């Protein structure tokens, strides 16, 4: 089969060995694969795959099961699925633990389904499972136009939260159409002030942050009493100073997780939560995949250039 292989920080469509379904795994014949910011880091050598994961990039895919490994129950060859991967989505076939499979949600094409697993699992595990965002609360999403952000905006709205987003102005109209109550141009506006203005000075109950160090103190300033901050990205660096007094006064919580590094059993727990709590919202049309553009798998390098420009809104998807 063919896969995208990284060599000297370049992506090459290369012939590679077929994957085999190990104990508890299935092989997926890939129809489509989502592109994620982390894939760019992996290409640059800054985000190696965890031990045992395929060497090729690609954290999510959709397709059809082509083989079952020993000990797999409840799935069959020919079944249409999408999956959360530790790597290897940029390939014609990939082996994945059965616990990381999700059905293609009712009403979606197999290609659309490829745009969902990574964002759904990341947002649900942080915002719903950990931060317990509730109806009536205020949810601040940084980078609302990202693949993660476009999903978070819709999920926040579907859960009954008031959704505030930061994004460049060119993305605001579409973010409001997706369910954002307030769009903040982070390049022109102070998001802390905008959040306080929008909440009568109370602040945001839950913050989903992809910027890291650069936003840490300001996220705490923007936080409501008993607020929760989930840091899931470091686009603004990893090292920052924090006034713990400011956090304590608000009885705030800061957490940070990486989905890819979690053990398979934890990923399976998250996938089950997504299937039970998020997929019904997707099937009901309340949360939709937002696909900016598609490229053939062999042109993954071009797809990553579009992502690097940050001019996209939502997901970029590779097609077999
Ligand atoms: N921890 C985890 O488990 C996990 C899992 C998945 C993703 N992530 C992280 O989530 C982030 C998004 O991933 P993705 O694949 O969805 O990326 P993406 O689509 O490439 O989006 C990146 C976004 O960052 C925004 N941005 C840049 N500077 C900003 C700033 N100062 N303030 C607010 N937004 C800013 C850009 O929007 P503008 O054009 O508006 O600037 C762009 O939409 C990445 O940092 C990724 O590493 C983490």
From TrEMBL:
Keywords linked to the UniProt accession: NADP, Oxidoreductase
Name of one Pfam family that matches: ADH_zinc_N_2
GO molecular function, one term: NADPH binding
Keyword Oxidoreductase: yes
Domain Enoyl reductase (ER): 7-318
Name this polypeptide is given: NAD(P)H quinone oxidoreductase
Organism, as annotated: Actinoplanes siamensis
Lineage of origin: Bacteria, Bacillati, Actinomycetota, Actinomycetes, Micromonosporales
């Amino acid at each position: 089969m063919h896969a995208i292989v990284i060599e000297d920080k370049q992506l090459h469509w290369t012939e590679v060995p077929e994957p085999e379904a190990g104990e508890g795994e299935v092989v997926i014949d890939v129809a489509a694969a989502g592109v994620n910011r982390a894939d760019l880091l992996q290409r640059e050598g800054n985000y190696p795959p965890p031990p045992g994961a395929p060497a090729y990039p690609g954290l999510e895919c959709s397709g059809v099961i082509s083989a079952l490994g020993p000990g797999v129950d409840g799935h069959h060859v020919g079944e249409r699925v999408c999956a959360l991967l530790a790597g290897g989505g940029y390939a014609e076939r990939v082996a994945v633990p059965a616990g990381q499979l999700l059905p293609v949600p009712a009403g979606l094409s197999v290609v659309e389904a490829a745009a969902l697993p990574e964002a759904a699992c990341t947002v649900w595990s942080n915002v719903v499972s950990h931060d317990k965002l509730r109806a009536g609360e205020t949810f601040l999403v940084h980078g609302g136009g990202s693949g993660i952000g476009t999903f978070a905006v819709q999920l926040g709205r579907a859960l009954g939260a008031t959704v505030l987003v930061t994004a460049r102005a060119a993305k605001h109209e579409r973010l409001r159409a997706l369910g954002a109550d307030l769009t903040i141009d982070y390049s022109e506006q102070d998001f802390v002030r905008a959040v306080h203005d929008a909440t009568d000075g109370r602040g945001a109950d839950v913050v989903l942050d992809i910027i890291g160090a650069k936003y840490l103190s300001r996220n705490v300033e923007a936080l409501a009493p008993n607020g929760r901050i989930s840091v899931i990205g470091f686009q603004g660096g990893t090292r920052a100073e924090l006034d713990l007094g400011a956090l304590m006064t608000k009885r705030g919580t800061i957490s940070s997780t990486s989905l890819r590094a979690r053990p398979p059993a934890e990923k399976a727990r998250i996938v089950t939560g997504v299937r039970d709590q998020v997929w019904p919202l997707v099937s009901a049309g309340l949360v939709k995949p937002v696909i900016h553009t598609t490229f053939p798998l062999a042109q993954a390098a071009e797809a990553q250039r579009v992502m690097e420009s940050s001019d996209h809104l939502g997901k970029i998807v590779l097609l077999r």
